[in-house]
Amino acid sequence: MVEAGQIALTVVMGLLLFGVATFLTRLEDWRSYTPLAGGGYVGEQTGQAHSEKPAGIVRWLTTVDHKDIGMLYGLYGIVAFAWGGIAVLLMRAELAAPAENIIGANFYNALLTTHGITMLFLFGTPILAAFGNYFIPLLIGADDMAFPRINAIAFWLLPPAAVLIWAGFPLASLTDSIDPAQTAWTMYTPLSVEQTNPGVDLMLLGLHLSGVSATMGAINFIATIFTERGEEVGWENLDIFSWTMITQSGLILFSFPLLGSALVMLLLDRNFGTMFFAAEGGGPILWQHLFWFFGHPEVYILVLPPMGLVSLILPRFAGRKLFGFKFVVYSTLAIGVLSFGVWAHHMFATGIDPRIRASFMAVSLAIAVPSAVKTFNWITTMWNGKLRLTAPMLFCIGFVQNFIIGGVTGVFLASIPVDLVLHDTYYVVGHFHFIVMGAIAVAGFAGIYYWFPLYTGRMYQRTLAKWHFWLTMIGSNVTFIAMLLLGYGGMPRRYATYVFSNPELVSMFTNLHIIATVGAFIMGFGQLIFVYNIVTSWLEGPHVESGDPWDLEDTGMKTKEWAWFERKRETALTDGGEEVAADGGETVEDE
């Protein structure tokens, strides 16, 4: 009965996706509408004029404006961040004691799965797309993204993806046959094939949708940066954030379709009896090769744009240009190329040919060099600079510190003898989270605070922003350093309990888990302050008094998006403070 239900569910989802694709192909004009100066739209291919965008909820459901879509991505990313954060706090609460106490092993495994997939696919990639959608056209002097309708479609694939990925939790309380997926985010076979749970199929379909969304967005970013740049923006003076986004988009274009193919094979194994990953067919190791060929470029897909954010923001508050701009660009491109040659360092313990292991170790060590180049350039940019310790600058510095720890611990894991000892321990968890939360999310906070005056016209509460910074930094370092120490002690990851025969070992693990749990809750409290600050400041914060709220013009560091913001303000003031259309029909309120 369960297998029949799985097949029926798969057929229904396939028909639904086919129907959506058929509907989309019937749209008459895939090329976007270019905004008119007066606020209306004209189709580039049809020449048909359109009125201003509607107000209210209809605007957000139908918009093709890159700024609106950037805001939608940002809201989506923050909601996903909250979901993943709540999941990890429940897991940490369970791990504060050795035995099974609060949520149970099965629910722990479900939270473990949803936390990893949510943070990587539903938070990490969309929050970076939020910055890219909003600011890349402004930074390169473009009217909009190259394909705004495709841009909108790419976003609207994400909400159903999240529903499918998370659906197992509400459905578990409504049915007896569906539970949340418990495969962990890597979905290793044969476990992911043998679990007769339709919730796994829902999760795989949701992942597939998120991958299609990311690929569509990547094509759009590449086309935009190549073809929509202003006449004065050449490759030699393209901003560093756009360089990292175009490199990230190239990585997505070559890696996400492979993940999609592997997910289709896994769905076929689960529902139609194929043997792509069965021992008699390709074998479970085939899944690891296919997954990690995507999975390690995915790390750089997530970390390159934050590097670009830090490289853009940090010099503004150091009072000097980014040191070695060309080398930062070259190192970005080098990371993009080398990232496809390191996937098997996740598989050193699988018994692959020692000669192959050695080659992957060499490339894994080599990829640390361009990352180190960036780190030295950031530090040198701050050296003898006139530092202003605003919230964006503090988060940039926090990014550099966490990235150094995360990078150095990764170098150890790239060494075969060390990796064989530390593989599948909490050391890997600590290293990975220093990069994902300690660096990627921290850089995202820097970007949110830096551009907050631009997209709201208001200023956040500075004291609360600094509290957010310190709680995030203290909480993340306490948590992830405790994880590194747990790994050195031999604590295996992905375990809901750790009741061992050695009482001294259990005592040591318990103390470190308590420390990690305290750190996680400190970090979580910091995020509550962040949400409170953003919401209240958006609604009631003081209006910025000029188009240059960070005084960037004084040091010659003012960039194109702030020039656009200043023109937007001047347009509103010239019009007497009434709402007027500006840049794609967006309305500007009285400042």
Automatic annotation (TrEMBL):
SUPFAM superfamilies: Cytochrome c oxidase subunit I-like (SSF81442). Pfam families: COX1. Residues 60-550 form the Cytochrome oxidase subunit I profile domain. InterPro entries: Cyt_c_oxase-like_su1_dom, Cyt_c_oxase-like_su1_sf, Cyt_C_Oxase_1, Cyt_c_Oxase_su1_BS. The chain crosses the membrane at residues 6-24, 69-91, 117-140, 152-169, 202-226, 246-268, 299-315, 327-346, 358-379, 391-414, 434-455, 467-491, 511-535. It comes from the Archaea. It is found in: Membrane. It is a multi-pass membrane protein. One of its GO terms (molecular function) is cytochrome-c oxidase activity. Keywords: Electron transport, Heme, Iron, Membrane, Metal-binding, Respiratory chain, Transmembrane, Transmembrane helix, Transport. GO terms for biological process: aerobic respiration; electron transport coupled proton transport; respiratory electron transport chain. GO terms for cellular component: membrane. Belongs to the heme-copper respiratory oxidase family. PANTHER family: CYTOCHROME C OXIDASE SUBUNIT 1. This is Cbb3-type cytochrome c oxidase subunit I. It comes from Halorussus limi.
